[in-house]
């Protein structure tokens, strides 16, 4: 190959590299423009994702169960003679509540006669230990949830792994 041919090849390679550099500069400019546009759109957009979750209280257990797709966390507790199950699903909190009837809430399990109370959904509540200060308190609920039993029961009923079910309450 002659010296002239070598110079021609080098000129050709330099021109190809210059064309690639221009193409890359154009692509980088477009990418920066798209990023800046998306950034400004996000900054000017009302932040709906930062709004507090919506709480939906359901009275029907089967309806509650149907709503639990892609659950983040399920919480349960017995609060003032009311069994509450809350489920965090994205920006919504679904809640099911079942009150103990007045006669069940007023029933005092006697010593040696521990009786469970079955909610309409099929979950058993267990009698609290009878204590002297508890006997005089007519407003206190005589039952309590047993966390391990309730976690297992809810896991089977809702088809959710037990690691995503805890005893507690959601505060908004």
What does this structure look like?
The protein is of the alpha/beta class and 172 residues long. The protein has five helices and eight strands; from the N terminus they run H-E-H-E-E-E-H-E-E-H-E-H-E. The chain has helices spanning 3-44, 61-66, 102-106, 132-135, 147-158, and strands at residues 54-58, 73-79, 82-89, 92-99, 117-118, 124-127, 143-144, 165-167. A five-stranded mixed beta sheet has the order 1-4-3-2-8. The N and C termini lie far apart (80 Å).
Question: What's the layout of helices and strands?
Answer:
Elements: H1 3-44, E1 54-58, H2 61-66, E2 73-79, E3 82-89, E4 92-99, H3 102-106, E5 117-118, E6 124-127, H4 132-135, E7 143-144, H5 147-158, E8 165-167
Parallel strand pairs: 1-4, 2-8
Antiparallel strand pairs: 2-3, 3-4, 5-6, 6-7
Features:
single chain; 172 residues; alpha/beta; 5-stranded mixed sheet; 5 helices; 8 strands; 23% strand
Count of alpha/pi helices: 5
Which structural category fits the helices and strands?
alpha/beta
Query: Could you give the count of β-strands?
Result: 8
Task: Report strand order across the widest sheet.
Answer: 1-4-3-2-8
Helix content: 40-55%
Number of domains: 2
What Rg do the Cα atoms give? 32 Å
Give the topology string: H per helix, E per strand. Answer: HEHEEEHEEHEHE
Q: Distance N terminus to C terminus? A: 80 Å
């Amino acid at each position: 190959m002659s010296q002239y041919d070598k110079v021609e090849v080098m000129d050709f390679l330099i021109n190809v590299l210059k064309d690639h550099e221009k193409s890359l500069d154009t692509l980088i400019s477009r990418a920066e423009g798209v990023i800046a546009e998306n950034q400004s759109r996000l900054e000017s957009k009302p932040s709906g994702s930062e709004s507090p979750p919506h709480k939906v209280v359901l009275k029907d257990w089967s309806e509650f169960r149907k709503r639990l797709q892609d659950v983040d966390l399920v919480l349960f507790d017995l609060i003032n003679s009311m069994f509450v199950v809350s489920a965090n699903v994205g920006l919504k909190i679904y809640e099911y509540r079942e009150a103990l009837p007045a006669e069940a809430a007023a029933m005092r399990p006697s010593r040696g006669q521990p009786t469970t109370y079955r909610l309409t959904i099929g979950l058993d509540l267990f009698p609290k230990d009878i204590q002297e200060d508890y006997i005089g308190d007519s407003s206190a609920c005589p039952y309590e949830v047993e966390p391990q039993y309730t976690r297992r029961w809810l896991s089977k009923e809702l088809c959710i792994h037990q690691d995503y079910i805890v005893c507690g309450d959601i505060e908004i």
